[in-house]
UniProtKB/TrEMBL annotation:
The lineage of its organism: Bacteria, Bacillati, Bacillota, Bacilli, Bacillales. This is Esterase family protein. PANTHER family: DIACYLGLYCEROL ACYLTRANSFERASE_MYCOLYLTRANSFERASE AG85A (PTHR48098:SF1), ENTEROCHELIN ESTERASE-RELATED (PTHR48098). SUPFAM superfamilies: alpha/beta-Hydrolases. GO terms for molecular function: acyltransferase activity, transferring groups other than amino-acyl groups. Signal peptide: none annotated. InterPro entries: AB_hydrolase_fold (IPR029058), Esterase-like (IPR000801), Mycobacterial_A85_antigen (IPR050583). It comes from the Bacteria.
Amino acid sequence: MAFIDCHFFSESLGISTSMYVILPQPTTRQIGMETRAVKEKHPTLYLLHGLSDDHTIWMRRTSIERYAAEYGIAVVMPTVNRSFYTDMEQGYAYWTFISEELPAVAGSFFPLSGEREDTFAAGLSMGGYGALKLALSCPERFAAGASLSGATDIVNLVQEWQTAEFQHIFGDLTKIRGSRNDLFHLAEEMARSDGTKPRLYQCCGTEDFLYQDNVRFREHCRSLKVELTYEEEPGSHEWGYWDRKIQAVLQWLPIR
């Protein structure tokens, strides 16, 4: 695998920003590493970080490079700060960045497939929210979305935390329910749609503080008859759990 620390200017943010990218590289002499790779453009996973982290965290806390090598998939890891993958009320347009600009920019820099069937999103905690938001909002461009210990019930989360930071991100907090930032609402829209639907994956540890939020989202999807792969097991909000589950996500992805 090739590893790129990429710094570039974002038009939608109006600032320079960063992403880590790992790309499949066919090798025959690299000890301890066998990489599946195609000569054409690579299937791509946009792998999103949580609230307190940045684009470096998946490489620092897991063996994502080694895991991805087995599947011949490129992994793009952007930074979005504490934005909840949202066009912030007082701040930057991170939803526009992550949903529109980043795939275009990354695809212009690297040999990434632009086909829907080759494009996936996954993330942990805040990033799990972002990954499901991408899959549910952009089903014509993302074939699958996976949430690991995700902040799936943003309405409940902002009510519990009651922080000024959420007002800077979302604006009027009473208007989140039923908006484009509400995963429950997006799932309802997708259920009513006759269009192409992405595959969805959700997991959460039973000791995680977000466990009940995840259960509510699971039950909501089941009530809508939205197809969802759900897994739970003992575990809390920590990297040992996410290191295990990202391997399950890669195995679950419909990589061609």
